[in-house]
Amino acid sequence: MFHLALVVCSIWVKILTFLNIKQLEYAALARRATQIQKELSQGVRKPYKELTDVCWGDPHSLGVKPLTFVRQVLAACVYPELMSSHKLPLDVRQRAQWLLGKCEGGSIGSYPASAGIPEIIQRMSKSIARRDGGVPCNPENVFISPGSQWSLTVTSLLLTSLNDEAPLRTGILIPVPCHVTTITSITSLGAAVVPYFLSEEHGWALQVEELQRALESAKGGCNPIALYVINPGNPAGYVQSRKSIQEVIRFASEKRLVLLADEVYQDCVYGKNSEFVSYKKVLAEMGPPFSDTVELASFHSVSKGFMGECGLRGGYVELVNLDPNVVNYISNLNYDTTSVLAQFALDLMMNPPRPGDPSYPLYNQVRNAVNAICLPGLSCQPVEGGAFVFPRVFLPPRAIQKAKEEGMQPDTFYCMRLLEETGVLITPGCEYRQKEGTYHIRYNIKNKLNSILLPH
Amino acid sequence: MFHLALVVCSIWVKILTFLNIKQLEYAALARRATQIQKELSQGVRKPYKELTDVCWGDPHSLGVKPLTFVRQVLAACVYPELMSSHKLPLDVRQRAQWLLGKCEGGSIGSYPASAGIPEIIQRMSKSIARRDGGVPCNPENVFISPGSQWSLTVTSLLLTSLNDEAPLRTGILIPVPCHVTTITSITSLGAAVVPYFLSEEHGWALQVEELQRALESAKGGCNPIALYVINPGNPAGYVQSRKSIQEVIRFASEKRLVLLADEVYQDCVYGKNSEFVSYKKVLAEMGPPFSDTVELASFHSVSKGFMGECGLRGGYVELVNLDPNVVNYISNLNYDTTSVLAQFALDLMMNPPRPGDPSYPLYNQVRNAVNAICLPGLSCQPVEGGAFVFPRVFLPPRAIQKAKEEGMQPDTFYCMRLLEETGVLITPGCEYRQKEGTYHIRYNIKNKLNSILLPH
Ligand SMILES: Cc1ncc(COP(=O)(O)O)c(C=O)c1O
Ligand SMILES: Cc1ncc(COP(=O)(O)O)c(C=O)c1O
Q1: How many C-beta atoms surround the C-beta of residue B363 within 10 A?
Q2: Nearest bound ligand to CA B342?
Q3: Which of A59, A441, B176, B417 has the most CB atoms around its CB within 10 Å?
Q4: pTM above 0.90, yes or no
């Protein structure tokens, strides 16, 4: 028994280690950015007046306005006295009333049921079914948590532990480039990251031959049990077509891999010919044997989309065809961690105002504004979805040499120069892994700085 | 490595098991209560018109009003447009502005730093030092989380794992009666519960001789490493004196036990001669060798006190003299789980309005009203703090016999009868453990039903 506990401890030691080393390259940049901020506040003259940080998928920190409807409903729930004035639109007041009615004593201050407020989870599952054109969604398969990253960590943890009989350690296939936190949580669980490269030449497409190659490469080293996909992508903003998803599902089925579909950017699709189709929907369309055997976990979050409420800490995972053991464990992992307001936010995200509602016109306008982007001919693959661009930068050999001398990766060197000269903080591609010899930068496109950021 | 993961899994299996069996006695009552509610809504005639649930420490679910100051500040943070009107008091607007200033982009929608917003943790630590009359509090020892129960589980988990070399399994001393969730989390970690009985005859006092007896009783069975105390108590509403705390600290020092001090009811003290003194303060007053060796973890939460914001999910633990390994691990356990609003609520709890502030008069009035209680001569030990009474019920042998026939504990039987006859739902003492042959009930005193509840 104590050994069990020791083990938990060692897992956390690993997390500790990984969190600390996670962003060494970025850390140097962030340190310098802090210094620059200080210098600016002390009146040091620079070619810019303020520092602009476009590294993170954190729209509000970049000054993107939160959705009025969302904030009004939450404020009314926090302070119901607001509802007595008619300043708030009728649908806001009605929604707040409905949500509060699901809390004991009508207050967000009461403990919610350990697994979440049942009526909210039911509505979430109805909304998932609507998104997927009627493919049913069982509320018992929907698990809320303080963020999708937490759901992903917990799901991977349980999958890893079910693999304990295997002679090799668990492997999980991960795209390159990939959202950093995912890599750190997976490695921290002791699982091996099996990288597959997205094809920059094909708009960062996910290619099955590459999955095949990655799987082969893992042979003997680890036992791959799951395939992690991000659609729409981060940091590369591609959106998978239905056909591409079908291919991935067939591959997962053939190789008996659990599909971990990170679909947190599902509401951020703006490519002219792109459309978000969920893995769940495509799976259902494919029919048996796929639809009743392929194991799928789909993640979503209030942190992303045009809602962007990262600070509320709310997300969920929907599990399809998963081992009942995993489902059972997960249902007990999240007890009492997700705040009532995060649960309300999930409800608002999944049941936004509809045409005809008083809040609809403003909601729709803000949503369109947040999703509208202007990319002035950036030399980068077209961005179809997500919140980031990941353009390639071609650096002269002298720059690469100089970077080496300063003990930096060439793209970190590029970012450091950009920071010094323009006050704009972006992230180097090496943070997300990239093909050897290629260099990239990543930044959030929800800003007005694209002309500065064009690699020059 | 896979074995490590397996182990995490088995821990969760245990949690699963314990959560499911946790409240068998209470479950029967809750089921019947749901039926009664249904019957009432269908028009079935009963001697009461509605069901009243006074089981839980959830003031808002009992209709206790939230603190206006707290809700106004949070609403203003959620929807800053509210600040442009002068309807909100100046100190509310100022506080909201200060809090939002600590968020990237001035929005609660941004990711907070993984370990929490540094300025808030600094202010929390200053407030702890103030509470303790100047005993310093290092912000690096204060760890926020989604609730104190989470902090307690995580701390116990780490302590348990540090005991891995010992030949016997870890034991933790736990008061009887005790808050249920604590027992389930400790047992779920694979640690043994070593019960010590609070002395009902002495106002549910904690007696060192009893700690001694409990420790002796554990010999050979497990290796006790920690002592859990709840002060002020739950379900028994006693408040420890400084002298009693000194004795406990001396005992912990002598036996090398880590002190786990659950102080979530620190703001709920209303006995005429009672005063809350923190373990941390007494420890500091005692000086070396105690003050620099006794390991102490103190828990607090926005769920309790007169704030009662259980749904926000915010709490913290302060660690004193703890093994640096434990401190290190804990600092990485909570990453990204505590919402920004829960962090704001911690700030508001620990820095309430002060005399002279516009919000002070109302704040003070509501606080007094929440803490004012009327106990009409209940045949129970005087209640000095906490939110509950735990009166003893003397049941006639026929009732005990009848209970046996129906397969219930005698106090569950009592509660079931009370529910049928009055529509009032309370919890049987067997849920909290009690001395054999004694029976108790527990209910929240923040309600107006004490006359019904008087055991008859
Ligand atoms: C692909 C992806 N998944 C998950 C997350 C984390 O989301 P959450 O805030 O729900 O934990 C992010 C955040 O940037 C992300 O980019
Ligand atoms: C003694 C005690 N500690 C802790 C808690 C749990 O508090 P939290 O909501 O912070 O997890 C409770 C809740 O009833 C309690 O009574």
Answers
A1: 20
A2: 2
A3: A59
A4: no
Q: Counting atoms of ligand 2 from 1, which one is nearest the CA of B148?
A: 10
Contacts of A337 in chain B (CB under 8 A): 146-147, 150, 313, 337
Whether B131 lines ligand 2, by a CB cut-off of 6 Å, is: no
CATH of residue A208's domain is: 3.40.640.10
What angle in degrees, to the nearest 10, is found between the helix axes of A2-21 and B2-21? 120
| Domain total in chain A | 1
- H/E stretch holding B193 reads strand B192-197
Q: How confident is the model over A352-365, as pLDDT tens digits?
A: 999 999 999 999 88
pLDDT in tens, B314-373: 999 999 999 887 787 776 665 688 999 999 999 999 999 999 999 999 998 877 776 654
Q: Atom 15 (ligand 2): residue with closest C-alpha?
A: B179
Residue of A nearest to B340 (CA): A311
The Å distance, Cα A182 to ligand 1 centre, comes to 8
CA dihedral B364, B365, B370, B376 (to 10 degrees): 130
Q: Quick check: B7 and A8 CB within 8 A?
A: yes
State how far the alpha carbon of A420 is from the alpha carbons of A36, A407, B210, in Å.
8, 17, 67
Q: Is residue A41 part of a domain?
A: no
The CA-atom distances, in angstroms, between B37 and each of A427, A440, B32, B42 are: 57, 62, 9, 9
- Tell me whether residues A328 and B149 touch, CB distance under 8 A: no
**A153 ligand 1 Cβ < 6 A:** no
The DSSP 8-state label assigned to residue A269 in this structure reads: B
Distance CA B255, CA A41 (A): 54
- Pocket of ligand 2 contains residue B446 by CB under 6 Å: no
Percent pLDDT > 70 in chain B is 83
- CB contacts < 8 A (A, B): 258
* B310 occurs within a structural domain: yes
Domain contains B118? yes
Asked if A105's CB is within 8 angstroms of B63's CB, the reply is yes
Instruction: Give a yes or no: residue A421 inside a domain.
Output: no
Q: Enumerate the residues of chain B whose CB falls inside 8 A of the CB of residue A189.
A: 5
Give residue A358's domain range: 1-26+66-384
pLDDT in tens, chain B (456 residues): 233 333 343 443 333 333 333 345 677 777 787 788 888 888 888 877 777 776 665 666 655 678 999 999 999 999 999 998 778 999 999 999 999 999 988 999 988 887 889 999 999 999 999 999 999 999 999 999 999 988 898 888 778 877 766 788 899 999 988 877 787 777 766 788 999 999 988 888 999 999 999 999 999 999 999 999 999 987 777 899 999 999 999 999 999 999 999 999 998 887 777 889 999 999 999 999 999 999 999 999 999 877 889 999 999 999 999 988 778 777 666 568 899 999 999 999 999 999 999 999 999 887 777 665 433 223 345 567 676 778 777 777 888 888 888 888 888 888 888 787 777 788 888 888 888 888 888 877 655 454 444 433
Q: Are A301 and A132 in contact (CB under 8 A)?
A: no
> Using an 8 Å Cβ cutoff, are B65 and B307 in contact?
no
Residue with CA closest to ligand 1 atom 13: A57
CA B43 centroid distance within chain? 38
Is residue B308 in contact with ligand 2, taking CB distance under 6 Å?
no
Residues A105, B3: C-beta atoms closer than 8 Å: no
Q: B336 and A149: CB-CB below 8 Å?
A: yes
